[in-house]
Design a protein that fits this description.
By secondary structure, the chain is of the alpha+beta class. The protein is 30% helix and 34% strand.
């Protein structure tokens, strides 16, 4: 665009020099005409900017892993002049990954018209996919001036893990659920089990202090006791990764797939359970009691909003032990193994 401005300025200067040399008034008129055109183009951009609106819309709120995410870019021109060249800038980001991809879309739209541009985005991993419409740039027909549109719209789509019937059967079989070991109706824990971890409050008992985590985090943490009485099993997800590599992200895909395949199998067998996960940003454990598929998908969407963390696996330290506790992590080669009490 700078080259267009320089070329236009050189043309105007050349016209006036030619007019002076040739002493021809019509050449001066031509130069004035070129200047008027540049002024009109300037006001064209300012005018159109006031009457153009752009928005982003997701066609689906959720997609399965491997599917394309269909999107719509809606451009509305409420002005009396057509828009020849509008560039819209958006950013696509997976919540688990710090990497983001910038996408540019060039559109034109007639006066008083609305144009819908359909496109798709992809993600190589499951997660909460965020699409952010950042800015718009409106150009005149010869791209002499650039006018900025301030846009700030965000949409979110969830890419869900695949829970295939064959994997549900295989995984629940490997987990060895049998009636003579586990009751589907009677909880398997008493008040001696850990329910969660929180900061120390005045009046807490010394025997409730989680000494190992207190030493690691340099602050006093308390073990809260007693499990939910309506749940016999815990599926615990830890988002710890030794490093944010492609291998860790693939491990996270597998963790989600196996955890929710197991949960789906338990639902079909009417086995009471809950899903727990360690939220590194909040420094606490969240949980949802799972009674049906709706509960499972609520837990899934909340967990897709988590981020991987490094350093020390705090989730594994917090995860309670017991025959009915199953631990999952992106780093585990064999997810879903029971954490047996010592």
């Amino acid at each position: 665009m700078i080259s267009v401005k320089i070329s236009t300025a050189l043309v105007i200067i050349g016209i006036f020099i030619l007019g002076i040399i040739s002493d021809a008034y019509h050449i001066f008129i031509l130069g004035i005409g070129v200047i008027l055109v540049t002024i009109l183009l300037f006001f064209y951009g300012r005018y159109c900017t006031k009457y153009v609106y752009a928005s982003l819309k997701e066609k689906k709120k959720t997609v399965n892993f491997g599917e394309e995410i269909p999107m719509e870019l809606i451009v509305e021109n409420k002005g009396l002049l057509p828009i020849m060249n509008l560039k819209l800038v958006s950013r696509c980001r997976n919540g688990f990954i710090n990497y983001s991809e910038i996408r540019n879309v060039q559109v034109s739209v007639g006066a008083g018209k609305t144009r819908i541009v359909e496109f798709s985005i992809n993600s190589s991993h499951i997660g909460r996919i965020k699409m952010h419409l950042l800015d718009g740039f409106l150009y005149d027909p010869i791209m002499l001036y650039k006018n900025k549109l301030n846009l700030d719209q965000r949409v979110t789509v969830y890419m869900l893990p695949l829970c295939e019937k064959e994997k549900i059967v295989d995984f629940t079989t490997r987990s060895t659920f049998t009636d003579n070991i586990y009751s589907k109706d009677k909880p398997g824990y008493d008040s001696s089990e850990i329910f969660g971890i929180r900061d120390y409050r005045e009046g807490d008992l010394i025997k409730q202090i989680h000494w190992k985590l207190t030493a690691k985090l340099d602050k006093t943490l308390i073990k809260e006791y007693s499990l939910p009485i309506d749940n016999s099993f815990i599926l615990f997800a830890d988002f710890y990764a030794e490093s944010l590599t492609e291998e860790a992200l693939t491990g996270m895909d597998t963790m989600f797939e196996e955890l929710f395949s197991l949960s789906m199998g338990m639902i079909s067998e009417k086995i009471n359970h809950s899903i727990w996960w360690y939220d590194y940003k909040k420094g606490e454990v969240s949980s949802i009691n799972i009674n049906n598929l709706d509960d499972m998908y609520i837990a899934m969407q909340q967990m897709l909003g988590m981020t991987l963390y490094g350093g020390t696996s705090l989730g594994k330290e917090i995860c309670p032990e017991g025959d009915g506790v199953f631990y999952f992590s992106p780093n585990e080669e064999r997810n879903g193994e029971r954490r047996l009490s010592a």
